[in-house]
Amino acid sequence: DCLILSAFGCGAFKNPSDHIASIFKSAIYQYAEFFNTIYFTIVDDHNTGNKINPQGNLLPFQEILDGLIVPSPINLCIDAA
């Protein structure tokens, strides 16, 4: 019931951290009902802070995901009678 994620590809592969965080945000809204808690372990090391990620990895993930509240899924009942 718990999911642990990271800034996939935002270090050595130089994916833009704000873009990856936005993709995660979209996926969280789609699949949130499957998890009680989602954790992100974000590392700022020698591979971050480059031209593509000048703010590092942590700050963009915080700005996009910190405090994100996902509404409970709505159960729909369809009466075909």
What does it look like?
InterPro entries: Macro_dom-like (IPR043472). It comes from Rotaria magnacalcarata. This is TIGR02452 family protein. This protein has 81 residues and is α+β, with helices and mostly antiparallel strands. The protein has one domain. 28% of the residues lie in helices and 12% in strands. It is built from two helices and two strands, in the order βαβα. The protein has helices at residues 17-31, 58-65; strands spanning 2-6, 37-41. A two-stranded parallel ribbon has the order 1-2. The N and C termini lie far apart (36 Å). The model has no long low-confidence stretch (mean pLDDT 86).
Topology:
Elements: E1 2-6, H1 17-31, E2 37-41, H2 58-65
Parallel strand pairs: 1-2
Helix pairs in contact: 1-2
Core attributes:
alpha+beta; 81 residues; two-stranded parallel sheet; 2 strands; 2 helices
